[in-house]
């Protein structure tokens, strides 16, 4: 069964929408530059009112490991998601599962059967080396779309069936690290994304929003589409 995470939660009401719809995880963005940023104090208030078996993930970009550890402890996070240039080994002392994001520009993907150049113009072999080093330190690799320097929440899907991206997905699976797909997912396209990519989980934020605000009907529809496609 494909899992589903609703990210960018900013209120108790939104969290309950996701939980009631059947989401497996909810995400809170602790990145001041993000329009979906949430203060740790508010996140803690929300977490304390949530049921016990809901996975709670904090999203960070190049944040000091000590600060991340404090937020994890105070907000009762059950996992962290790193979207910057972090070295996962620096966050091992925190003691919760770590998801490492790979950000791919939707403007510069390579449509080729040859060995592609992928995230941030890094050669394929360099990512392969990183994945090798990350084995045992990260419990998931999240492939996300970036657009004009914006990381996450772009609303722009990747060309999932592009040979270069298919090569990336295959490479990640070869290390037996769960693949999480993000970037421009919506209730309308998530079933196709699941068929093409076959991820362990999908992660959505802007795709379940209207005018920048989470929408209950879209959250419910998204989860229903995921469940309908994952058997």
UniProtKB/TrEMBL annotation:
Signal peptide: none annotated. The keyword Isomerase applies. Keywords: Amino-acid biosynthesis, Aromatic amino acid biosynthesis, Isomerase, Tryptophan biosynthesis. One of its GO terms (molecular function) is phosphoribosylanthranilate isomerase activity. Pfam families: PRAI. Belongs to the TrpF family. The lineage of its organism: Bacteria, Bacillati, Bacillota, Clostridia, Eubacteriales. Pathway: Amino-acid biosynthesis; L-tryptophan biosynthesis; L-tryptophan from chorismate: step 3/5. Its EC number is 5.3.1.24. This is N-(5'-phosphoribosyl)anthranilate isomerase.
């Amino acid at each position: 069964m494909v899992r589903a995470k609703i990210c960018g939660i900013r209120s108790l009401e939104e969290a309950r929408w996701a939980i009631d719809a059947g989401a497996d995880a909810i995400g809170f963005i602790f990145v001041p530059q993000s329009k979906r940023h949430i203060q740790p104090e508010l996140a803690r208030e929300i977490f304390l009112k949530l049921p016990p078996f809901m996975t709670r993930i904090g999203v960070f970009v190049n944040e000091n490991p000590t600060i991340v550890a404090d937020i994890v402890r105070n907000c009762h996070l059950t996992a962290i998601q790193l979207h910057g240039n972090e070295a996962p080994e620096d966050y091992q002392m925190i003691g919760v599962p770590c998801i490492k994001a790979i950000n791919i520009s939707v403007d510069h993907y390579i449509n080729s059967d040859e060995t592609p150049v992928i995230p941030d113009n890094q050669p394929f072999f360099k990512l392969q080396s990183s994945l090798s080093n990350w084995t045992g330190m990260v419990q998931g690799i999240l492939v996300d779309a970036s657009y004009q320097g914006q990381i996450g929440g772009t609303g722009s899907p990747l060309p999932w069936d592009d040979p270069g991206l298919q090569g990336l997905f295959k490479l990640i699976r070869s290390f037996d690290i769960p693949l999480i797909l993000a970037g421009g997912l919506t209730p309308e396209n998530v079933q196709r994304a699941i068929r093409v990519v076959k991820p362990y989980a999908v992660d959505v934020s802007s795709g379940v929003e209207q005018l920048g605000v989470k929408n209950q009907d879209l959250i419910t529809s998204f989860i229903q589409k995921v469940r309908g496609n994952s058997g």
